[in-house]
Automatic annotation (TrEMBL):
This is Uncharacterized protein. It comes from Rhizobium leguminosarum.
Length: 238
């Protein structure tokens, strides 16, 4: 982890051991054609027993840095989509996939020197970010080259998140429009939900009965409690 990170502590007050997973609030993708779904990835998943009995808790760590990412599934089917990237290389193969990522800064009203990266397809890669006009405030851009979308998408772009296991996971992503600049507006808001969702797997986006950890308010840590009655509570700290 970097020195600037978010921490989500999870305590289980139910009488049985439970799995919990973390996912990020879906990013906005302005000008995205409506039929294209926004996909979400599991950023962490772990089981823990009753807090009062065991004293055990889960600590999910997330880098506060924003990353742009791209993924080519090649021969992988949609059900095999696992967007897990190792931090030790800019591109690599994972479950028949090739991925790339770059740290970016979000556009402000005064602009940003590093708000857009350019995607290349052969080989897959993302350029060092540079200034690009027309990127939505609060967002970053990916300059997508011309390509031929297939009936089942094989190319995805969006925001990725670095967890405390030194892995970057595609967090909120779409099949991009060819020959266009894709705008992505991420939110540093994360949710904890009960259930088993392996790290990097795609998850159904559902904020209901989940703990909301809003790091845009200035908190660096959230303590999430899963109560005996099946509800969540979350409290932010320094």
């Amino acid at each position: 982890m970097t020195s600037s990170s978010y921490q989500i502590i999870v305590r289980n007050l139910s009488q049985t051991t439970q799995y919990f997973y973390v996912f990020q609030k879906q990013a906005a993708f302005p000008l995205l054609p409506s039929p294209d779904p926004i996909l979400s990835g599991s950023l962490g998943c772990q089981s823990v027993g009753n807090y009062a009995t065991t004293g055990a808790q889960i600590n999910f760590g997330l880098d506060s840095q924003i990353y742009a990412g791209a993924l080519s599934t090649k021969q992988a089917s949609a059900s095999q989509l696992i967007a897990l990237l190792a931090l030790n290389a800019a591109t690599l193969s994972v479950v028949g996939s090739t991925s790339a990522f770059r740290p970016v800064t979000l556009t402000t009203a005064d602009g940003s020197p590093d708000n857009c990266t350019t995607l290349t397809l052969d080989p897959l890669g993302l350029s060092a970010p540079a200034n690009q006009a027309g990127i939505a405030i609060g967002g970053f851009g990916i300059n997508v080259p011309s390509y031929t979308p297939l009936p089942h998408p094989e190319l995805y772009c969006g925001v990725v998140a670095l967890n405390n296991n030194q892995a970057i996971i595609l967090s909120s992503f779409v099949a991009p429009v060819p020959n266009a600049i894709m705008n992505c507006i991420p939110k540093q808001i994360f949710f904890v939900k009960m259930g088993y969702q392996p790290v990097g797997s795609t998850v159904a986006y559902d904020e209901s009965n989940a703990a909301r950890c809003d790091f845009t308010t200035g908190y660096a840590t959230y303590t999430v409690t899963y109560n005996a009655n099946g509800t969540f509570s979350a409290a932010g700290g320094p």
